[in-house]
Fold this sequence. Notes:
Blueprint: E1 3-5, E2 14-22, H1 30-38, E3 45-56, E4 63-72, E5 101-103, H2 107-118, E6 124-127, H3 132-145, H4 176-187, H5 204-220, E7 224-227, E8 231-236, E9 242-247, E10 252-254, E11 258-260, H6 267-276, E12 281-282, E13 285-294, H7 295-303, E14 320-323, E15 326-341, E16 351-354, E17 363-372, H8 392-407, E18 414-418, H9 419-424, E19 440-442, H10 445-448, H11 451-467, E20 477-482, E21 489-490, E22 505-507, H12 518-536
Helix pairs in contact: 2-12, 4-12
Amino acid sequence: MGSSTLDDSAGQPERVHGLKLPLGATTDRLGPLVASALGVSPAELAEVRVVKVSLDARGAVPLQVYTVDAWRIGQDVPPARVPALRVPAGMRALKAGQAPIIVGTGPAGLWAAIRLVRAGIPSILLDRGGALSDRHGSVRKLRRGRELDPESNLCFGAGGAGTYSDGKLYTRKRSGLVQAVYEDLVALGASEDILTAAHPHVGTNRLIKMLGGLEQFLVEAGCELRYGQKVEGLLRDTGGRVAGVRLASGVELKSPATILATGHSARDVYRWLHETGVILERKPFAIGMRCEHPQTLIDAIQYGRHAARPELEPSEYFLKTQVSGRGVYSFCMCPGGFVIPTPTEVGHLNVNGMSNAKRGGRFANAALVVEVRPDDFYIESPGDRDHLGPLAGLELQRHLERLAFEHGGSDYSAPAQRLTDFLKNRAGDLPERTSFRPGTQAANLRGLLPRRFAEPLARAVHGFDRKMGGYLTKEAQLFGFETTTSSPIRIPRNEQLQAPGFDGLFPCGEGAGYAGGIVSSAIDGIRCAEAAMAVLGR
């Protein structure tokens, strides 16, 4: 029924895995199951707390599978933590030239600021994009009016790219900071379910509301959030130490510690860092397409005879395989979501996915991507990659995004193709309905992708259909291209998390090559803030 590991230390719980209850059953039924697993009577248990819950819909009845912590009578039971974000007493005042600067207000930058606040240190946060209200307008102009603002869009602005996403929180990182980030999110308004869900998510609509609360917290702590502030260079003192940043407006801001958390789409930042002499390295990433299915179809595949049960959430899938030694996998799956345009350069187009908290949309979408290794960073021939140095991966991304823009009609419509036609290597027609706005244009995506990427993707689809019977269907539609699964560049850091030869500069988060999602980015922001505190004397 379950397994446990006993620790007789006072206050230390016994953890029990694999306890099963029918879907919808209340957790008060867990007590007898825990007692049985531990070989004791229910009366000997002081408290049982759920640690994790997942769904198993493979059998005759859908089951919820629990991992719990249990305390016996006589043990000290610690109080349950109540997530909270509070401004500590004794906050420093911002002093010109002394406050830490955080470049970027995505999860890495925001959690760096939170960690500094907890140490009593307010910071200055800079973002090239707009505040929430301005950013919403820019997003609407792109999705409805086909007009891109290259400085404020679905990637740049308050909250970074994470603001317009499914808000997926699952991470493979094994760190106590994972739970700490979850608790911060609950304090900001996320459902407490994220503390125990196996694959927690927040949803775009809730993230947007929560971001407003986080901004208020930071302002109350004495931080400054400055939007529309594009950073174009570093300041250095006579000893070569980074002493702040230079804005596009010409304004110079001095600081003893600069946390660079600009995200994976700020390509101009990589260029001026490279020109400045900051070391950059090529890093593997993945490219491919968004694949959209009707959500009812995915539910039928995943839940089978249980698909019509209203208490089941829209289903997910996770697929992976190896084709000739190259990884192919699904990524960033958005049940009941929308495919969205996420370019940051005029004349370019790439796509991503988002969904709201209830995941109530008609369609499911996920990235369908293939591994790209540093020796793949070329466009026409392998020799192309050599003269581009560490920026070669960026140019590969940009090349595919230009193709997508042109073959979509040069108006931010997405080039699209049925999954079945991708395998037949033809454009074909398109389904009548799609979640993508502003629109689609039939194109042969397989013919546009370099063969070294297109062929593994095509071969993998047959294997995915064997794993999920019905995945390969005429109803499935692909959109080109998903180019920014992660950064193709890493900015090396020393043991103090500073860029070698650029003391005072802390490359951070997904854009620096050290994270891959909301939670891992937030954790790296916390770590960089703690490293910066050593420079700040705290």
